[in-house]
Specification:
This protein is mainly alpha-helical and 205 residues long. It has 9 helices and 3 strands, in the order H-E-H-H-E-H-E-H-H-H-H-H. The termini are far apart.
Length: 205
């Protein structure tokens, strides 16, 4: 299989080139001179509405922390390769876009999902605190935006039930005048988060 490679020096150039040429695959390092890959991916996706269907974003990073992994998946990357990685790992993702491969060096495909769940749980308390602050201020747009991030990350971490609870709460925020219903839905959501955190952190130890 032959590949036509276009190389650029920074994130701005990468975005400009991608919007012009519409490549089928973009390989991007997390840390670049002008911005990180997460911000670059978000800008690219805003400018190219069909990018998720027409192009695969593959990220590279030496940062194997749970937070970095979650940030990159949340930004739109379909795969994240932890450096150093064998060229075969990159080629497998380039040739077989639907193949579920691990982001770990161990090569265990199940570990990728586990890492993503642990990353989600690590960031969930901070997101809940931000949601509580926005709710106290009755800033409904902010509440919706925070919940949108939580639900998206939960879905990517294969926590569909919790994502569903978040979407139900999002609908309640659109009708804040129904205060009793909103309060109960919020309490149910917090209970679900508490149960998830209690069970999940033990699994991530």
């Amino acid at each position: 299989m032959k590949y036509s490679l276009v190389e650029v020096e920074d994130a701005v150039s990468a975005i400009r080139q991608a919007l012009y040429t519409r490549p089928r695959l973009i390989l991007m390092d997390l840390h670049m001179p002008d911005m990180n890959a997460c911000e670059a991916a978000r800008r690219l996706l805003r400018g190219w509405s069909g990018a998720r269907a027409e192009c695969r974003l593959i990220g590279m990073t030496a940062d194997d922390s749970q937070a970095a992994l979650l940030d990159m998946y949340s930004a739109g990357f379909c795969h994240v390769l932890i450096k150093p990685f064998p060229v075969a790992s990159l080629l497998a993702r380039a040739r077989f876009p639907g193949l579920l491969l691990s982001n770990s060096r161990q090569g265990d495909a199940r570990l990728a999902g586990h890492q993503l769940q642990c990353a989600f749980l690590a960031q969930l308390p901070g997101q809940l605190a931000a949601l509580d602050s926005a709710l106290t201020l009755m800033d409904w747009p902010a509440c919706g935006a925070i919940l949108h991030r939580i639900c998206g990350a939960a879905a990517m971490a294969n926590l569909a039930d919790f994502a569903s609870m978040g979407r139900e709460l999002t609908l309640s925020f659109r009708q804040p005048h129904k205060s009793s219903q909103l309060a109960q839905t919020y309490l149910d959501f917090l209970a679900g988060a508490g149960e998830l955190l209690g069970r999940g952190f033990r699994d991530c130890e």
